[in-house]
Amino acid sequence: MKLYSIKKSNQFTLSLILLSITHVSIATQIETAESLQIQQQNTAIKSQQRVEILDDQAQKMLDEFREISFELENIRAYHQQLKKIVHSQEQEKKALSQQILDIDITQRNITPLMLRMLQVLEQFVSLDAPFLAKERTLRVTQLKLMMDRSDIDLAEKFRRVLEAYLVETDYGRTIESYNGTLKDSHITVEFLRLGRLGLYYLSLDESEAGYWDKQENKWQVLPDDYRSAISQGIRIAKKQAAPDLLQLPLPAPESVQ
């Protein structure tokens, strides 16, 4: 009877030991599972963080790629524009080279032209009516001296020659009055020029009047009837009287040859 009791007590103790071992094993498994779950969660968090970092890096690289692509397009467009500009400059260089060549040719031809123009101007002044003779002759002389000067460029020389021609042209459409001396007589008179139609004089005391005879190439005395008309013309030229009709002798028209 006692023996039975002892066996039963040992079995109960063994059962308690086994139950205790089983409980410890289950607890250990639970702790292990929780630890694995925590590790997996940490791993997932780290993976998510790496994914986010990689996503940020990828987005940053994409933005940089787009920016570089945009800059590349701008560079290509700028390069194309530069090619057009360079092509245009090459065309301008060719045009300028041709212009320089033309200028050289023009400079070689314009000097003889100006010399011929001065020769014609000198002949014209000497054959024209003798109004402002000293002034006009001096102008031609100064232009001829100017042609030998090296300190005046070709363009300025040509401008002055043309200016002299313009002055001579203006004489044909203006009226003028000025004091002067009759050639060979040394008499001081008042000259009246009506364009190039007529050239007259009136003595200062208005006792004598005359005109330039182109055909005879000399001064001719006019009848006394023309003195008042010449006097009136002088006042008109000086803007001392209003424009009016003047009855004065004019040279006969000459045929053009």
Q: How many individual β-strands?
A: 5
The number of helical runs is 4
Which consecutive residue ranges, at least 5 long each, have pLDDT under 50? none
Tell me, briefly, the overall form: rod-shaped
> What is the alpha-carbon Rg in Å?
59 Å
Structural class: alpha+beta
Key traits:
257 residues, alpha+beta, 5-stranded antiparallel β-sheet, 4 helices, 66% helix
Walk me through what this model shows.
The protein has 257 residues and is of the alpha+beta class. Among the domains are: 66 residues; 76 residues, no CATH class. The protein is built from four helices and five strands. A five-stranded antiparallel beta sheet has the order 1-2-3-4-5, covered by helices on one side. Strand 1 and strand 2 form a beta hairpin. The radius of gyration is 59 Å and the shape is rod-shaped.
Give a brief outline of the structure.
By secondary structure, this protein is of the alpha+beta class. The protein contains four helices and five strands; from the N terminus they run H-H-H-E-E-E-E-E-H. The longest helix is centred in the first third of the chain and has 126 residues, at 2-127.
What's the topology here?
Blueprint: H1 2-127, H2 133-146, H3 154-171, E1 175-181, E2 188-194, E3 198-203, E4 209-213, E5 218-221, H4 227-237
Antiparallel strand pairs: 1-2, 2-3, 3-4, 4-5
Helix pairs in contact: 1-2, 1-3, 2-3
